[in-house]
Design a protein that fits this description.
By secondary structure, this protein is α+β, with helices and mostly antiparallel strands. It has five helices and seven strands. It has helices at residues 2-6, 48-59, 98-108, 113-123, 133-143; strands at 10-19, 25-31, 38-44, 64-73, 81-92, 95-96, 131-132. Helix 3 packs across helix 4 (113-123) and helix 3 packs parallel to helix 5 (133-143). 26% of the residues are buried.
Length: 148
Amino acid sequence: MQILDASRPFAAFLERVEIEESSRRGLLTLRPDSGVAETIRTEQDTTLSGRAMIERARELEGRWVLVYRYNQPKSGGKFENVRMVARLLDLGEGTLANQVARQVLIGDAGGDEQRAAAAWKEAGLPLSGSIPVADLEPVRRTLRGEQL
C-alpha cells in the first residue's frame, strides 16, 4: 500500500509487453498523450508478483491504462532509478490523439516513418482529430506482419 500511496499515476496507451532477457523483467512500452514512448518495468517473471503483472499487462495491450509507477533505485548505480509499475487499471479502448496514433504506427513499423505514413494513407485514416483504437488496430497488425 505504501508503494501505491507514493506512486505517480498517469494515463497511457499500452503499446507492447516484452521480457528483458538479461533481467527477466517485463518491459511495458507506454505512450502517454505526449506521443513520446516510454518504457516501464515489472518485477522479474520468476516471482509471483512479476509474473502476475506481466500477464495483466499482456491482457491490456492495445488499451488505455492508468499506470501507477514508482522509482526503484538501480542496483550499483549512484542516484539512478528505474521506473517500475505498481498497478495497471484498464481505461478502455477509446481513441488516440492523432499525433499519438502516428507515433504508435511508427513504432510498429520499426521506426520507419515513410512506411508508417504509407500505411496511414492506405488505411484512409484522417489527417487530424482523434483516431479510434479499433480503426488503428488493423493497420498496426499489418505493419507488424500479423495475420488479419
